Amino acid sequence: MNAPKLSARLGAEFLGTFWLVFGGCGSAVLAAKFLSDPDQVQLGIGFAGVALAFGLTVLTMAYAVGHVSGAHFNPAVTIGCAVAKRFAWKDVPAYIGTQVLAGLLAGALLVLVASGKDGFVVTGNLAANGYGEHSPGGYSLLAALIIETVLTAFFLYVILGATDTRAPQGFAPIAIGLSLTLIHLISIPVTNTSVNPARSTGPAVLQAGWALRQLWMFWVAPILGAVLAALFTRYVMDAEDMGPGAVEPEPVAPAATVVEPGTPPPPPVV
User: Fold this and answer.
1) Among 30, 89, 188, 229, which one is least packed by beta carbons within 10 Å?
2) Mean pLDDT value across the chain
3) What is the pTM of this model?
4) Which residues contact 263 (CB under 8 A, 6 or more apart)?
C-alpha cells in the first residue's frame, strides 16, 4: 500500500482540524447557553455538551480521514508523534501550518455565523482560552499551565497507546474521542480547555486583545505535555519490549508504512 501524497494528507488534516474548531468552539459559542422564549428555560448543552462535542469531532474525523493523514488535528500531537518516532520530522512544519490555517478559517466562519444574531460581540464570546481573570473559574496562570500540560500528556499517551499495533484494532478513534471529552469535562472551568494550539490560535487571533496576549501559554503547555508523554512512551514503555542489546528502530512515518498484499494495514496514528 503506497503512502498518500503529502497534499492529500494536508487536505485531510485541514478538514479534521476545521471540523474540530468549528464543531467544538461552535458548540460553546452557539449552543452552550440557549434560553427559550418567552419562558427563559435553559435549553443549552452546557459544559457537558461542549465536552462531548469536542470529543465527537475528533472521533468522527479520525474514522473519516485517519487512514489518510493519521488524524493529528493538533500541533502538539504532531510534535509528540515525531518525538515518539511515529511521524517524520520533515512533515511537521507542513502539518502544523495546515492545522493553524484550518483553525483560523473555522474561527472566522464561526464569527460570521454568530454575527447573524443581533448583539453578538466577538470579545469574550468566541470560546477563547484564558487564565487569571479570563479563566472561566478564575484560575491562575500556574493552575492553567499545570492542567494543560498534564492533560495534553495523558491525551498523547492515550493516542500512542490506542494506535499501537498491540492494541485492539479499529477502536482507537473511540478511545481518543472519549479521552478528549473527559479532558474537557475536567478543564473547561480552568482554561476553557485547549490541549491544542491550533484550537486556541483561531479564536485568539480573531478576538485579539487579552486572548492573543495569553496565547503563548496554550502553545507552550500542550507541546510540553506532548513531548513528556512521547519521551515516556519511547524510553520507558517501548523500551520494556526491547531485549538486551536491542537496537531502537529507525523512525517511520505512519503514512509511509508499506503493507504486503493480503496483510491488514496498521491502525492510523491519530
Assistant:
1) 89
2) 88
3) 0.86
4) none
